[in-house]
Write a structure and sequence with these properties.
Elements: H1 7-29, H2 36-43, H3 64-78, H4 85-97, H5 105-117, H6 138-143, H7 149-160, H8 167-184, H9 189-203, H10 221-234, H11 238-246, H12 252-267, H13 274-279, H14 282-302
């Protein structure tokens, strides 16, 4: 499928990816910072969007994974589909000023630095290999559909480096952006494995995920991708993928969000359980759908 060959199918998959992001976020937030043993003791198997967790969320509420993505997407749309570093930083700063329900330490620190210096690019740091930039790549993936790999990578850096200027984080963000685009265009998992996952593991051996099952992942992007990749290759439905990932606990809202956007793009809208769509906060559901449609339409119009 080319970018313009089936706009209806492309838009449907884009909506599924955005809704998957929010659903994985809401599902995982309930069990964030719990261990698999604690999850099993309390829920048996965590399968439903029920709120609670350490943030004491109402059912269907999302966290920073989704709200930062929506803030970024709004900035991209305001700039006519371009991913502009200063606009990204301002969008994230505005998001932080709105007093979000949760915010990562690296994000907070580098946005405070942006307020002080006006520089939209955080200083390079070996310690900033968290998953905070990777969780919000979806708007960039949608906005750069059909663009050259170099343009896509520049756009990825424009948003990522506002808070996470680290080569390992960059590698993960690049991979996730291209993989989402491949799935949106209808490529099967086996092709994405050969074209994206294998090169990723060659370039970044630390992402090799087969040595052991990753459980209770931290916010380190290496742990995040171990969980996301293990679940991706070992499951065969959207529902199974998100249940597998979120029941590993740890930073479950982010692993769930990333798995949700990949799974939504791969399996499509019809694969998303209706109970999860119904449980998602209506305003979030509406915003995700609308932004997905607008970003895809703009990308296709710009060729």
């Amino acid at each position: 499928m080319s970018v313009n060959s089936s706009l209806t199918e492309l838009t449907s998959r884009a909506e599924a990816a955005y809704l998957g992001l929010a659903i994985g976020d809401a599902l995982g937030a309930t069990v964030e910072f719990m261990t698999p043993h604690e999850i099993a003791a309390k829920y048996g198997e965590h399968r439903d969007i029920c709120g609670g967790g350490w943030l004491n969320l109402k059912p269907g509420k999302v966290t920073d994974d989704t709200t930062m993505s929506l803030a970024l997407g709004a900035a991209i749309l305001s700039d006519g589909g371009e991913v502009v570093p200063l606009s990204c930083a301002h969008a994230f700063d505005g998001w932080m000023r709105s007093k979000p329900v949760d915010i990562g330490n690296t994000v907070r620190r580098n946005l405070i630095s942006f307020r002080r210096t006006g520089n939209p690019e955080a200083a390079p740091s070996e310690y900033d290999a968290g998953n905070g930039a990777a969780m919000r790549v979806l708007p960039v993936a949608l906005a750069t559909l059909g663009k050259s790999p170099e343009v896509v990578r520049q756009a990825v850096r424009a948003q990522a480096h506002a808070t996470h200027n680290n080569p390992v984080s960059d590698g993960a963000c690049d991979f996730l952006t291209f993989a989402v685009q491949d799935f949106l265009l209808g490529l099967p998992l086996r092709s994405v494995y050969r074209q994206r996952i294998e090169p990723l593991l060659q370039a970044f051996p630390e992402f090799s995920y087969r040595s052991k099952r990753q459980e209770n992942p931290s916010g380190w992007i290496v742990h995040t991708l171990h969980v996301v990749l293990q679940g991706l290759v070992d499951t065969d439905t959207f529902e199974h993928y998100l249940i597998d990932v979120t029941n590993r606990g740890g930073d479950a809202d982010t692993t769930g969000a990333i798995a949700g956007m990949l799974g939504g793009a791969l399996y499509g809208y019809d694969a998303i359980p209706k109970r999860w769509l119904k449980a998602l906060e209506p305003a979030t559901c509406k915003a995700c759908r609308a932004q997905a449609r607008e970003l895809v339409a703009l990308a296709c119009a710009r060729g």
